[in-house]
Amino acid sequence: MAKRPPITNRVRELREAHDGLSQAALAKEIGVTRQTVIAIEQGRYSPSLESAFRISRVFGVGLEDVFGWEGPPRGDAMGEGS
Amino acid sequence: MTFREKLAWVMSIVLVWASLYYLGYVLGQGLGLEAVPPPSVELAFVYVSFVMIGSIVGAAGVALQNTEEANAPADERERIILDKAGKWSGYLVGLFAMLGVLHYWMFQEGNILFHFVVAGLMLSQIAKYVSQVVLFRRGV
After folding, report:
1. What pTM was estimated for this model as a whole?
2. A24, A39, A75, B55 - which has most CB atoms within 10 Å?
3. What is d(CA B89, CA B69) in angstroms, rounded to the nearest whole number?
4. What is the sign of the dihedral through the CA atoms of B37, B39, B45 and B47?
5. Which residues in chain B (8-67) have CB-CB distances under 8 A to chain A?
6. Which residue of B has its CA nearest to A39?
7. ipTM tops 0.85
8. With an 8 Å Cβ cutoff, are B2 and A35 in contact?
9. In 3-state terms, what secondary structure has residue B39?
10. DSSP B58-110
């Protein structure tokens, strides 16, 4: 299995909250295949910035309402205090 | 399964089949001659014809099942997969060409050089489509 990117997403949750929008319909809206939407939902693929914006616009929310970072906060990663 | 993944499966099967036929023929001839068989134009023609017909029929069959996707350009994830697979395939051709040249430099056996290059081309195409299948399944 490929190493998963440290990016989480709420695509599935938002899709279901959005009148059960289908994966195929979302894929068509953002211009990718249904398999790419499946890969995004399963965390196997991180979409491009353009597709990430398209997804958030479909749901009418901000980018950070859809995608998150599951690694350590920036201060820890950069060696805060050094 | 997307159109491109199905196409990768079809091409993998066609290429493996054609390459096994080619390999079987060359090995059979080599055993009969007890030497490295010379390049055969007829065999190359059979191989190329089989791959061409197999890929046209296979691609047409897959395209008929997924007409909309077949006409659409590859999406961003598919482009990454196609690029990665193409890159690995290129490395394999280069490796076999270099091995062939190295062998020729050491033993001056032109037939082996030919077979190294042909094997490199065949394996690189197989690697290209098989790695596409793997990347489509496993993720990029």
Report:
1. 0.82
2. A39
3. 25
4. positive
5. none
6. B139
7. no
8. yes
9. coil
10. HHHHHHHHTHHHHHSPP-HHHHHHHHHHHHHHHHHHHHHHHHHHHHHHHH--H
